[in-house]
Amino acid sequence: MKHLVILGAGTAGTMMANHLSHQLEKNDWKISIVDERKEHHYQPGYLFLPFDIYSPSDIIKSIDEFIPKNAELIRGSINKIAPKENKVHMEDGSELNYDVLIIATGAKIAPEETEGMKGIEWQKSVFDFYTFEGSLALRNKLRDWQGGKLVVHITEMPIKCPVAPLEFAFLADSFFKHKHMRDKVEITYVTPLSGAFTKPKATEALEHLLKEKNINIESDFAIEHVNNENKTIVDYGGRVIPFDILVTVPTNKGDEMIERSGMGDDLNYVPTHKATLQSKEYANIFVLGDASNIPASKAGSVAHFEAEILTDNILHYINGEPLKEEFDGHANCFIETGNGKALLIDFNYTHEPVEGSFPFAGIGPLRLLKESRMNHMGKLAFRWIYWNVLLKGTHIPFVSATMSESGKHYN
To answer: 2-108+253-318 belongs to which homologous superfamily?
Structure first.
């Protein structure tokens, strides 16, 4: 019996286990999925936790609940991959032999990469919201905070869910308005980019919203250190921004195991063919989700679209057939803008977000690059879709893995 091993039981790994369990159950293949955790976290929910929109029970379930019955869940820590030997070495000394390996080990924050970020003010006045612990600590801080300078900051790109820091700033504006204390809070959005987002048309729309909501923007800010005593962030050019609360997105990196395996770049992301999702160095290794270095958004929707295309390519590989170069970098993201509204953006490697309708041309019902309550409802509905459809490997009707140009206005 041949062995397919998936490293990581997060969003990408769990979807792949479910997709492949349907396809390989009648073949002579065994599927194993490896993860040290017991809990599966709905990571988009971290955004809502600080504002008491979601509670921990909304975003945490058991990993076991989503692993297909005909796949083996191996709970343990991975030491390293030995790709030339087709083996995975576990921390407990055991080994896993594989015929095909899927790396879905994700990305994580690395605040230690920035001097002073994880200093004495960490989770006191300096917070992240990309971890459950950070998001919960920030919730507890905001519940009683009396106001001051709130700085929302991105250290460097790439990061998981590139729009999440903007969403945090917009939701903070709405949160403090509803607490009748918006006039007591100065919100500043600090980014290493030259604008609010990575794509020009989306940047224009998002910067208009920042201005409309009286949120300051500091662009081209390359942070050098966090000064815990003075409560400031300082960039390499000497620019200084004071804060009372710093909500930062630290450097994002791939799993340390990738570095120990000698398979990653300087941020521990695995070099991956951007259209086939095959490792650039090893033919029987495939990578998806946040673990790869492809130039697509590190977002859950991307992992979803990748999983559908990678499932076909795994089957092609197993059958000795050429891989299809089909993945186009498709990303589909709701952007919460506060006050019960949201934007929707749909883009890929070659097409930036533009206005239009989704998923049906001229009908919608969702509007692209426009604020609407319907988009907000779509964002909230996505949590149910995530738990009940995506993780289980079920296709979402009318939403294709590759981006459709239908309904989009490029003029």
So the answer is: FAD/NAD(P)-binding domain (3.50.50.60)
